Amino acid sequence: MKKPLVLASLLFILLSNNIFGQSTKYGWLHQDSWNLGFGFTYPRYVSTNLNGEDIGNYGFFLSIQRNFTEHMGFRLQGNYLHIKDKYSANTTSIIQSDILLGSLGLLYYFIPCEPVSPYAGFGAAGVDYKVKNSPVLLNKYKLDYELNGFMGVEWKIGENWKLKTELGYHTAASGHFDGVYGTIAGGTLGGRGDTYMTFDLGVLYYFGYGEKSHICEIYDGIIAKVDYDKIEEIVKRYQVQPADVDYSRIEDIVKKYKSIGTSTGNEPQENWVLIGINFDFNKATIKPESIPILYNTAEILLKNPEVKVEIQGHTDNIGSDRYNQKLSLQRAETVKNFLVAKGVAADRLTTVGFGKTKMIMDNKTEQGRGLNRRIELKIIK
User: Fold this and answer.
1) Radius of gyration of the CA atoms of the chain, in A
2) What pLDDT, on a 0 to 100 scale, did the predictor assign at position 142?
């Protein structure tokens, strides 16, 4: 009694666990679902002591199925089968079997994304049957079990409906399933059990859909499902944050370690190239490493209040003449604004942009182009 309870518990867990499953709705595949099935069954003996004739065979089936991946599912199915056949040793004797069975099967769908979806599976069943007109068995109900293999196709016919066509192969555990002891041809894999086949034709009603599946998107060339919010979160989490530049601190360091006097180093020259005042490509913003040089420039101009200068901006050779002229002027204006902010009178400073007309280095290398993106000062007499 203990083993059946364990098996029943396992079956309940498998059928009630809300994981994934093969199903369709609204034209797409779902991750989990249930379905109910019902329809007709045509049974026929294959390996028994009877002739294998059809003298009025028919049946019905009713099933409930839990699909737990896009490819896999469990099915519990009940069948009633009515089979009549002639006894091979006495063809005037017609043996009738009325069979009730309950089976549990595992199914695998080969291409679940298609409206015509083939599958295969196997399982086992408990059987309660009664044989009439048997020459050896009494007319009473008997219990047995069987092993089943099956393959079929589900055909989509509606939003929640599918047509089911299935061929099954069943081997009973005993050799008197047909009402006669022994089996002439042998059952599954050469065993001694009586064997019969069934053909099911019915409908399946899918219900209880879960989340939409994305495995079928590969049919459309892999349409990526991009979570942009997640990407943005990752970028924010791991991006290198730019360091805050303390310009006042830089100026304090320059003041502390640079001696200021009346030497030549503090006197403006006629053509004054601010080496180290360079810009990134296509930019006009002052880089942090340029601050000490500009601070020293402002200090020299403040110590020589009679001097007026022209701030000349330059670019490399990438881009149009018109654009580079505009960019070089912006760079010159940026330097002017810095110097004015440090106390140099604005009327002492003029700006001009030469674009890419006055190169001092070869533009074939990044280093050369970087040096061409420069600022020069010219004394105005």
Assistant:
1) 45
2) 81
Report the predicted TM-score, pTM, of the whole model to 2 decimal places: 0.52
Angle, to 10 degrees, between the axis of helix 247-257 and the axis of helix 291-303? 60
Residue 225 counted as domain residue: no
Of all helices (H) and strands (E), which one includes residue 120? Answer: strand 116-132
Give the separation between CA 178 and CA 43, rounded to whole angstroms. 13
Chain centroid, CA 22 distance in Å: 17
Residue type at 128?
Answer: D
Query: Tokens 């009549």, residue?
Result: 84
Domain, as residue range, for 211: 2-220
Query: How many whole angstroms separate alpha carbon 234 and alpha carbon 239?
Result: 8
**DSSP-assigned letter for residue 227:** -
Most confident option among 72-76, 240-244, 339-343 = 72-76
For residue 168, the Cα-to-chain-centroid distance in whole angstroms is 36
CA–centroid distance for 200 within its chain: 36
Same domain, 48 and 195: yes
Rounded CA separation 309/379 (Å): 5
Nearest-CA neighbor of 128 among 98, 159, 95?
98
Is 241 within the bounds of a domain?
no
Where do we find the tokens 């034209």? 27
Same domain flag for 198 and 307:
no
Phi, psi angles (nearest 5°) of residue 168: -120, 150
Q: In this structure, are 159 and 200 located in the same domain?
A: yes
Q: Are residue 23 and residue 162 in the same domain, yes or no?
A: yes
Q: 27, 43 in Cβ contact below 8 A?
A: no
